[in-house]
Amino acid sequence: MRLGNSYTIQEIGEGLAVPQLQRGLVWRPRQIELLWDSILRGFPIGAFVVADFADKTSKSDIQLLDGQQRMNAIKLGFINHSEYSRNIEESRGFLWLDLMPKLKEQSSRKFWIRICTPAHPWGYRANDNCSYLSAGEKRQACELYQADCGDNKHDFRNAWPFDAHMPVPLSIFVKAGLCAYNENEFITSISRDLNAFANLNKPWKTEIFEQHDIMTAIKNDNLIKAFSTLKSYRVNIVEVPHLFDSESPLNQATEIECLFERMNTLGTPISHRRSNHSLS
Fold it and tell me: Which residue from 20, 48, 54, 67 has the fewest beta carbons nearer than 10 Å?
């Protein structure tokens, strides 16, 4: 990946190298869902901080210093169903778009992105807190998915968000938005991939695909516009100056640790409640 003032959403989705001292993935489901809602609405999601650790004789080695949680949330939007099925043990989740959310309460969302995780393959409640489903709802979900509610995560490769009315894989829309050049191509791409997905997930085909007029739902001007503008969406990039080039590996590690500490501790949250909404 080349350095520049900004990256496309696809370049972010392809991933950046992350230094070993970066923390693990800590974002909660609601943060991932709301990030994608922000992207589809054209909201800025903050700059990513990167550095090129190449010396004078080696090729470029661009690494991400700040933005790991956002990058991994974005990457989830590019995972198709077959990839999720093959790597469900390692997957951090699979993202869906509910085309007809049944939410009754007030919400800040415009696009209902929903996540299913290996720990919660049935997803979460359709609210901004992503609260847990009840035990009874989980049992009902298992019946829909034709799955065993035991500990075998592979039983849930055909799951979808239980508390959703018309869930479809987000990656199908992301792909169409990035590749299609007009509305007809957008709809054709989604139609083709939805049919392919239905053949992979038989329970979803029976319960969702054959029970709802999905193609009418996707011919929504706001939906088409939101995904079509993904091609022009940019994430700002801040490049750390080449102050590491002449450092020894030991001094270089010390500099990076200092940078991490200051980026993550010097900010002052407006309030405890607002800080929970911040994007790492």
Answer: 20
